[in-house]
């Protein structure tokens, strides 16, 4: 009653004859149908409301039905916009009856989320008020059935709401409303050795391109990766579209980089909704990735001096669990596993996405997911080794992004300020300087080559699905070129 009285004072409840069709009123919200969206009636705002917008369940786990939920939320949003409305995320905080014989009187604070379509003249405060009125339309002790869920007390007590905690409203937009021309999807692997940061830095230096990145994160942006709703908020879209790292270049093609985009299905789905967006992948030999993971492990085992620790051979780590001790810490590595884990003495664990990239089947599965999300003509895949091939490669990439050639005097091979990790070449030099180390190292590489031969062949086939100008120059023989590299000749300089 109080909510309706306040609404009447603000003009939310008015006779039909005095209502603007776009006014934020109960009549406009429900006109043309029933509370249950009778299919025999004409479309109404209420019938275009009610879809959940949250991606995660209990704030932690992504819902198993997130793809279908995203599709239905976007469909409802588009229908609402075509109908002349604005789409809102309404979140309610309600105090539920939680009284029992043991603990006495008490109430539990719960939250519920709804996607709501309201007339175009609704402000944020009016949307909150309109939701409060219609929510209790079926009676004082239950929400209206259109909203699907009503608050429950303990199952052995009556359903009763003590009082409202809060109702919050935020207008939503579409992913296609974002101003974005290109994105570096991954794979950045293991401590800055994957090439994506070098690529991002060089593209940002192009006079027609700009990279949007966080102040605190080197060359990266997390906007698409950590969203917890199926649609972006209007305010978030406005902030993103207003961001610039080259204020003097208003016409620069805007891009973002995050090495984990290609690893996350939800991020790929959001990016794929942006019309005309061009994606870039940097692929790397899985054997090379696992070798880098092993050398990072060696660095941790050796510490700064690198002189007093027994380090397991690559041959041992390539076939099973290996470990080393340093200062009382026991660190373990399993290369051919779904995740790389370093366990310290205090039982904490560190996971390296770089070694995950090298796991059997992983890279080809993520390339396949990216090919499903992006049309082939909108995807560019580079071999990491091409980044050092000079202007021919970089001009080809710039042309794919719709830009002209790089300036002739620009140095495109520098890795300055890209990675703060110690170089892996030093760890390899230390390791191979030991007596009889080369044979174990070469044997480990041969074992990795054998275990990942099928993956290399599958990745080569995927590269050949793209138009020639959007694939590595050696796509036709990619896996054969990798197989011709003999590790014992390359690293140990054996005859």
TrEMBL record:
Official protein name in the record: Sulfotransferase domain-containing protein
